[in-house]
Amino acid sequence: MPMAAAAKGLAVSRSTLKLRCRELGIPVWPYRKLSSLEKLIDRVVELSHPGFQFVVSNIRRDIEAIKMDPSLKIKDEIEHLRQAMYDLKYKKRRNSRVAD
Q1: Which terminus of the chain has fewer Cβ atoms in its 10 Å neighbourhood, N or C?
Q2: Cα(90)–Cα(71) distance, integer angstroms
Q3: Are 34 and 61 in contact (CB under 8 A)?
């Protein structure tokens, strides 16, 4: 969940939650990273290519690893895939505007 929602649920300010996270060794709140990976899975599944099942399982493993250690970085191959999917979405959106 977003940090603001977590802070509200714990009845503390965002700043207090951030400070406590840093004390516990959580350098960044992982919500946006995890949300981005979940959206990536959705985009990959939309393509429904049989070879992508392996990719989806790798992304899910990364999600679980990040949940255990939020300081982990996204693997390079997944980062490249995320960028490629963004580029496809951007080009599709741009082409639909040109057609209008």
Answers
A1: C
A2: 29
A3: no
Closest-CA residue to 19 (of 7, 33, 2, 5): 7
Burial string for 20-56 (b: 16+ CB within 10 Å, else e) reads ebeeeeeeebbeebbeebeebbebbeeeeeeebeebe
* Helices marked H in 2-75: 3-10, 14-23, 31-47, 52-68
Q: For residue 95, how many other CB atoms are within 10 A of its CB? A: 9
Q: pLDDT tens per residue, the chain (100 residues)?
A: 889 999 999 999 999 999 998 998 888 888 888 999 999 888 888 877 777 788 888 899 999 998 888 888 888 888 888 888 888 877 777 777 766 5
